[in-house]
Design a protein that fits this description.
InterPro entries: LysR_HTH_N, LysR_subst-bd, WH-like_DNA-bd_sf, WH_DNA-bd_sf
Family: Belongs to the LysR transcriptional regulatory family.
Radius of gyration: 31 Å
CATH architecture of the largest domain: 3-Layer(aba) Sandwich
Number of domains: 3
Shape: rod-shaped
Number of helices: 12
GO molecular function, one term: DNA-binding transcription factor activity
CATH superfamily of the largest domain: Periplasmic binding protein-like II
Structural class: alpha/beta
Distance between the termini: 62 Å
Helix content: 40-55%
Protein name: DNA-binding transcriptional LysR family regulator
CATH class of the largest domain: Alpha Beta
Organism: Desulfallas thermosapovorans DSM 6562
């Protein structure tokens, strides 16, 4: 390109910081490979041949495209651009991730983010099958190439309709078996914690008056508000409604309804954007700032 623009091998070589014989050899090799003459040479200047004039705009377009690709790669290296695919269980995806993704995009506005929400079993499958780059789940994901670490502690609580007679009371676990109960689906982290805590007291869900199983914390909350039973949900999901008096809360003697959210990611093929997001959401100060009103 420099030769065509400067019409001189020596000046083009100087601008490219290579020797004049080297650039002449490169042009000769290219002409032999294409089996055409690209330049017409005389004592005063070098000009494009007819074939050269035909190829010149195509070559310029190729160079512009190359520079655009290179700039895009450089932007990715500096986490200036990219697309991030995430997965999360409902409580994390609906109550925590919007604030965290918003804070992340303030720092990296050119990175677009897609968040898929599903149960722990489904979200675990997404990361194992590489459908997403990082996930938040309710229990550890075990698979080759997947790294999984504890992320945040979720504290669950027993909720009631606002008019329930046990609202605000501290009661023994046995007193709850006289109630209908609304719970999460089998396989969810919250359901596992609930059943484990009940078993420690030799109680199963079958001993409650009735059991209604729903697929998300929000569905459980809605059912409790309608008076379909008491429920056990994350304080991340119910805390604000409890404070407003829309839901009641019961303290149960001897129960520890806490469990960990886990952050899992593809250890071998983690993108630059995914690594930046992982670093962001594991910053304790950042989490406190963005989630300070959540729990």
């Amino acid at each position: 390109m420099h030769i065509a623009q400067l019409k001189n091998f020596t000046r083009a070589a100087a601008q490219m910081n290579i020797s004049q014989p080297a650039i002449s050899l490169q042009i000769k090799a290219l002409e032999e490979e294409l089996n055409i003459t690209l330049f017409e040479r005389n004592d005063k200047k070098v000009v494009l041949s007819e074939a050269g004039r035909l190829l010149f705009p195509i070559a310029m377009q190729m160079i512009r495209q190359y520079n655009k690709i290179k700039a895009g790669i450089d932007d990715l290296r500096e986490v200036k651009a990219g697309h991030l695919m995430l997965g999360a269980v409902p409580v994390a995806g609906e109550c925590l991730m919007p604030a965290l993704i918003g804070g992340f995009r303030e720092q990296y506005p050119a990175i677009t983010v897609s968040l898929q929400i599903g149960g722990s079993v489904q979200v675990s499958r997404w990361i194992k099958e590489r459908d997403v780059e990082s996930v938040i789940v309710g229990y550890p994901v075990k698979a080759d190439g997947i790294e999984c670490r504890p992320w945040l502690t979720d504290q669950m609580t027993v909720i009631t309709p606002p008019w329930h007679p046990l609202r605000g009371e501290e009661v023994p676990l046995a007193a709850l078996t006289n109630e209908s109960i609304v719970v999460r689906e089998v396989g969810s982290g919250g359901r596992q914690v609930l059943e484990q805590q009940l078993l420690k007291h030799n109680i199963t869900l079958d001993q409650f008056t009735s059991v209604l199983e729903l697929g998300s914390a929000q569905a459980v909350i809605n059912a409790v508000r309608l008076g379909l039973g008491i429920g056990v949900v994350s304080r991340w999901a119910a805390g604000e409604l409890i404070e407003k008096g829309v839901l009641g809360e019961i303290t149960v003697q001897g129960l520890n309804f806490s469990y960990e959210f886990y952050l899992a990611w593809n250890q071998n093929k983690e993108s630059i954007a995914a690594k930046a997001f992982r670093t962001f959401i594991t910053d304790e100060e950042m989490i406190r700032r963005l989630l300070r009103t959540k729990n």
